[in-house]
Structures are given as C-alpha cells and as structure tokens.
Amino acid sequence: LDLKVLFVLLLTAAATDGQSFHIGNCPQPSVQEDFNVTKYMGTWYEIEKLPAVFEKGKCSQATYRFHFPINSIQGVGKVENASQPAILSVGFFKGVPDAPYWVLSTDYHSYALVYSCADYFRLFHVDFAWILARTRELSQDVIGQLHDKLTAAGVNVNRLIVSNQTGCDALEQ
Q: Which GO terms describe its cellular component (predicted)?
C-alpha cells in the first residue's frame, strides 16, 4: 500500500470521527510553571475538548489520586523530567504506549487546561485538548481565557466541543 494512500485513508477515517489531524510534527506549547502534582490531585470535570474517538458520552470526569479503587480503570502518570513536572505521560494498559499529558495552565482550584499530541510517521500529528474544572460548570470568562491560551499554542478552538455535564448529579451517589 502506497504511503500516500495510507495517509489519505487515515485522514478520511479521522475526519469521520472528528479527530484533529495536522500535517507536520506536534507543537511544543509552554506548560504550567512550578506545577504541583499534589495540588492537581482530585476530581476534574470535562467542560470542553477536541473530539477524541476514545472518549464518547456525557458526564466525563477524572479523579487523580495516589490510590485507585479496585473496581475502576487505573492509569499511571509519570513525570518525564523533574525540571518540567507539568509534562507527564499517562498509560492505562500494558503494551500500549503511554500518551503525553501536558498541563498548560491550572489554578488548581477551579480550572485546568490539558494538551496531548502524538506524531505519526513524522508526517502528521493528532492533538487533543481538554478544558477541565473542579465543578461541572466554568464561567465563560475563564473559558475565553483558556481558548486564548489554546490559540497561542496553535490549537484551533473552533473544533472544541462542549461536554455534556447535565443530569450527572445522580451518577455521583
């Protein structure tokens, strides 16, 4: 199979699922300075995201802690370089490569902006972005500021989709 044909097929499949494919290598946006992973622990709710084929549904949230309950999916996050603790890699399954998890910005108590990107064949990259909050809602002012940061990082904020966090309170019991 010709590499050009493979590339076109991958882009077509990605467009169908709304993935965010781009020509060239991943950008290298700046990350949160003096990131404190302990302050970052706890529950984060997804407010907006770039489309991700692996993430469907509503009421998306993540809880980061040092010990996970046995009946949940477990992920392992690792700081790759102690001088840049906001650049992590996360893995959920053995045999599957870890994914980048870059905290671009957070105030720890209300919002977090996370970016991830993977290069393929040095020809194109797929990126992911999440706007997270400690509650199921975030003010439009803060969302606007986070959109500005994503734009500065080279992310097309017009592709962000709003996550459905309505009717989720019943799930927390």
A: cytoplasm; extracellular region
**Cα 104 to the center of its chain, rounded Å:** 10
> Is the distance from CB of 52 to CB of 128 less than 8 angstroms?
yes
Q: Which two tokens stand for residue 24?
A: 């060239």
> Comparing C-alpha atoms, which of 97, 81, 161 is closest to residue 129?
161
pLDDT tens sequence across 119-161: 888 788 889 999 999 999 999 999 999 999 999 998 999 999 9
Q: Is the pLDDT of residue 18 over 70?
A: no
Give the max Cα distance, the chain: 53
**Which of the four pLDDT bands, split at 50, 70 and 90, describes residue 67?**
very low
- Per DSSP, the three-state class of 40 is helix
Distances (CA, A) of 37 to 11, 42, 139: 35, 10, 24
CATH hierarchy code of domain 23-162: 2.40.128.20
Write down the pTM of the prediction: 0.80
- Which amino acid belongs to residue 63? T
Q: Determine contact, residues 103/113, Cβ cutoff 8 Å.
A: yes
Spell 142-160 as b/e; 16+ CB within 10 A means b.
Answer: bbeebbebbeebebebeeb
